[in-house]
Amino acid sequence: MAELGSTAKRLKNVAASAASRYAYHALHKRQAWQLIDSMTSRGGLRRDDALFEQCDAYARDVFGSDKYSPWLKAYTVLSGTFKEGWIPDNYYGAVVVERLKGAYGAVSDCKAISNRLFHTDLLPDVAYAVNGLLCTASLDRIEPGDLKKHLFDKTEKVVFKRDSGGQGKSVSVYDAGSFPHETTVFGNGVFQSYIVQHPFFDAFDTQSVSTLRLTTVVEDDLHVSCRAAYLRMPRRADTHVKSETAVKVVVNVADGRLGVTGYLPDWVPVTRHPDSNEAFADHVVPNFQGCVEACVALHRQMPFARTIGWDVVVDQDDRVAVMEWNGTHNDIKFSEAADGPCFADLGWQHLWRRTVPA
Length: 358
Hints:
- Strands 10-9-8-7-6-11-12 form a seven-stranded antiparallel beta sheet, sandwiched between helices. Strands 2-1-5-3-4 form a five-stranded antiparallel beta sheet.
- The longest helix has 40 residues, at 2-41.
- The protein folds into three domains: 2-101, no CATH class; 125-193; 196-327, 2-Layer Sandwich (D-amino Acid Aminotransferase, Chain A, domain 1), CATH 3.30.470.
- The chain contains nine helices and twelve strands.
- The protein has helices spanning 2-41, 49-63, 69-79, 89-100, 113-118, 147-151, 199-202, 288-300, 333-339; strands at 125-130, 133-136, 157-162, 171-175, 189-193, 211-218, 224-233, 247-251, 258-263, 269-270, 307-314, 320-326.
- By secondary structure, it is α+β, with helices and mostly antiparallel strands.
- Helix 1 (2-41) runs parallel beside helix 3 and helix 3 crosses helix 9.
- It starts with a helix and ends in a 19-residue tail after the last helix.
């Protein structure tokens, strides 16, 4: 009877896993087609049925299933052509993240651990609220009544980031006047100094801080390389960068130069920031090489999560600040579509064929 119970439990788990995978790929299909619809209806881009058929065949031949075709089609519409070597976003999440990160990438969801892990002054951490504890970045205890004084001792604004938050969600910006009196409202997370951005970025937006997203990869020989970069610029009404509103512009990894075309959240192309009307062309991100070097060096300290998306700011004094790292399903789809393929030489397309030890 015990064996029957064990078998039933395994079958139940398999069924739940299958349902979860179906829902995952169905969600990605909807997201990809929503972008295709917006690019073709609002963005003036066109779909090509012959290229779409090529996407279907490539998904089946290379990735083993046409469920990976929708993202290839979205990439094709944005770039205007088909490119071998692209990694579909749902394949990245279902296969690459599982095989090349596992549980190690999920460590990035726990904000207070980052400074203990990397031992760097690039993170602007000021204090932590974790499991009922309040402490400084050096892990000295803070009395609840002293938290506000500690946070605003050397800065006019602070940012609180809740654990497991992503895409700009669960982020709050406070000054001394708006800071809550009750510290239990925060949950687990990190307080960081508000960074005053380099004047370069003020040409696009002055209301909040623009961030660079850099994607680094640990190759099989442990070499770390920066594979993709783009600038995320907030809209005028935002207190911080949010995926649902940010304008994205590809940054050349070699020299930090912005692309001519940027993209709204629905991948509709624009050549100027919609609020400031500043053109993207002919701008070069200040201290971009310093940003790349900082992220590569940090990734060498945490090679087990083999792809990481870093959120980086260049401050008013040309210094690099690393706001956070994303070790789970960090965004690659925009870089793949607008600047890819970024990972074609890494053999990721073969990972689904490898047997995972039980």
